[in-house]
Design the sequence.
């Protein structure tokens, strides 16, 4: 095919814009999302800009300037966008350029040029420059200009913040096609991997543990549509707190040896922080890590090692806090832990093995926890947002602007939802094997967006006769079937040298049972033959009116009824 015959396709990318890092991704022709490395080979590009002489440094190069040139290095600025100075928490910017008050909200004052007055850069301007650099990296990699992007933001980003982000991107020359929620992007990254054309209905918890904050969201995925059921945030919990746990640990060791505290000198502290972050990352892969810093403080070098067990103990409180956040978001969604079918761990800190294993212990063992430590096939948690954004970008690339606005996939919908699960209970005649019990099958889970329709087939009866089909409001309950202590002690024997894991990690076995809460409608199918299949179709209208159709497959006629919502 000659060039002129090729369809004019837009080149679009996904951008994950975090306080700590950003990443860019594109979707290849075979539909796979891939994260792009910048010129320095980084896929996690620190959201940092630094001004040195007449140069602007970006990403990892800028981050390393936090040691030598902190006051001209702008970091952790994303959450300041669209906020007034009084509303921001400047703690994270303590060791970099300090935010200042500005008529538009927040700004930074940096020496951008040698021998010139410092310039005042608003957060919007910094965002524009940052996105421009990301866009250049993507264009460089793909070898063509970028026409548009989808950017991810946390679920608590306000309308005003989204608008400013769009404008800041536009000012950099990059059109924003859509801004989507980070947890929705993470879920999209996983669902795009599933090879079925009928997405499975499930309730997913996305736990995003980044550098400066932790965000949790419960999302209902029904018929390919995503609905945010609850969100919870902790702005003082993230990878930086894990770094600080190591900073304090090594500082104590340094004080013991050299009688000087490296945390008291800004430059020493900055060095120690960067090295502790690297050590922490090593501990996600190996069971021990070394740290080596030349001239850390008072002219003394520092060399030490730490093992994963020690790190797990140092960070235990932080992991407890993460577990607490998970419990609270599930509670906020009006659910039980057993209602969650899958947990997706996103954000760089989700590489930490202990976090993944604690989350796995919290949920029943059949709940999939998608993290590198609990599932070898899990996607890289640092890449989920960018991948999801790239997938969404390729889906909507050719849409008109107003269609994107209305695009419900995967935008969060505001359609009505089923408050309770609806099930089918089948009662068939008693057979030789004893009393036939009502079996309840959940048809439509709670939180399914309506209108919805489902069809299912069942074996009507094993013995032949009349089959009673009940459409019911179902109740899901969790039953604790953990074996009693004595039984466990017997099976555990006297194995006491379990020092790999100091705390007692008891495995609870929770079973989920479905029961009838209320019968909504009944249908009697007469003279069903042994083993014959019965088809039940349920249609729930937007006003929750139910239409039920039941028939014997291969038989004549059927029953149809309507129940108002
Ligand atoms: P935020 O907006 O909360 O600051 P972000 O989305 O910008 O976060 P992420 O890249 O998701 O940032 O997370 C960055 C954090 O993840 C850093 O604290 C980093 O040290 C940590 N991190 C990255 N890789 C690993 C790893 N392999 N093991 C442990 N922590 C890691």
Sequence:
């Amino acid at each position: 095919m000659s060039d002129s015959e090729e369809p004019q396709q837009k080149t679009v990318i996904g951008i994950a814009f975090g306080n700590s890092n950003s990443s860019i991704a594109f979707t290849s022709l075979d539909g796979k999302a891939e994260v792009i490395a910048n010129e320095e080979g980084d896929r996690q590009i620190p959201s940092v800009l630094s001004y040195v002489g007449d140069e602007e440094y970006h990403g990892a190069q800028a981050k390393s300037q936090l040691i030598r040139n902190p006051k001209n290095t702008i970091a952790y600025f994303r959450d300041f966008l669209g906020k007034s100075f009084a509303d921001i928490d400047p703690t994270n910017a303590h060791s970099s350029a300090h935010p200042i008050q500005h008529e538009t909200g927040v700004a930074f004052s940096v020496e951008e040029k040698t021998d010139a007055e410092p310039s005042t850069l608003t957060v919007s301007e910094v965002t524009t420059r940052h996105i421009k650099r990301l866009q250049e990296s993507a264009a460089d990699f793909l070898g063509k200009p970028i026409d548009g992007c989808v950017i991810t933001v946390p679920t608590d980003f306000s309308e005003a913040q989204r608008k400013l982000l769009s404008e800041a991107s536009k000012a950099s020359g990059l059109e924003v096609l859509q801004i989507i929620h980070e947890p929705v992007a993470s879920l999209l990254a996983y669902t795009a991997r599933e090879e079925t054309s009928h997405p499975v209905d499930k309730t997913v918890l996305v736990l995003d543990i980044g550098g400066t904050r932790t965000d949790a969201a419960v999302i209902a995925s029904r018929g390919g549509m995503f609905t945010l059921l609850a969100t919870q945030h902790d702005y003082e919990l993230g990878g930086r707190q894990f770094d600080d746990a190591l900073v304090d640990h090594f500082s104590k060791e340094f004080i013991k040896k050299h009688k000087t505290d490296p945390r008291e000198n800004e430059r020493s502290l900055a060095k120690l922080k960067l090295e502790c972050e690297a050590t922490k990352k090593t501990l996600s892969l190996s069971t021990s890590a070394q740290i080596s810093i030349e001239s850390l403080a008072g002219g003394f070098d520092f060399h030490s090692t730490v093992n994963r067990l020690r790190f797990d103990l140092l960070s235990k409180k932080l992991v407890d806090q993460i577990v607490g956040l998970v419990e609270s978001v599930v509670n906020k969604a009006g659910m039980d832990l057993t209602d969650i079918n899958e947990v997706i761990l996103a954000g760089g800190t989700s590489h930490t093995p202990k976090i993944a294993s604690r989350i796995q212990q919290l949920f029943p063992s059949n709940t999939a926890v998608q993290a590198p430590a609990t599932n070898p096939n899990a996607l890289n948690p640092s890449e989920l947002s960018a991948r999801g954004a790239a997938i969404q970008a390729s889906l909507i690339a050719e849409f008109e602007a107003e269609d994107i606005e209305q695009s419900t996939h995967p935008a969060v919908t505001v359609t009505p939802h089923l408050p309770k699960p609806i099930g089918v209970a089948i009662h068939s005649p008693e057979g030789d094997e004893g009393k036939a019990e009502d079996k309840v099958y959940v048809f439509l889970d709670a939180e399914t967006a309506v209108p919805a329709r489902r069809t299912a087939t069942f074996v009507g009866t094993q013995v032949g006769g009349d089959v009673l089909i009940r459409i019911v409001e179902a109740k899901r309950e969790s039953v604790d079937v953990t074996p009693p202590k004595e039984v466990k002690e017997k099976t555990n024997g006297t194995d006491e040298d379990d020092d790999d894991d100091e705390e007692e990690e008891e495995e609870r076995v929770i079973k989920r049972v479905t029961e009838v809460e209320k019968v909504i409608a009944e249908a009697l199918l007469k003279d069903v033959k042994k083993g014959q299949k019965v088809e039940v179709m349920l249609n729930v209208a937007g006003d929750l009116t139910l239409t039920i159709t039941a028939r014997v497959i291969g038989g004549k006629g059927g029953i149809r009824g309507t129940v108002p919502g």
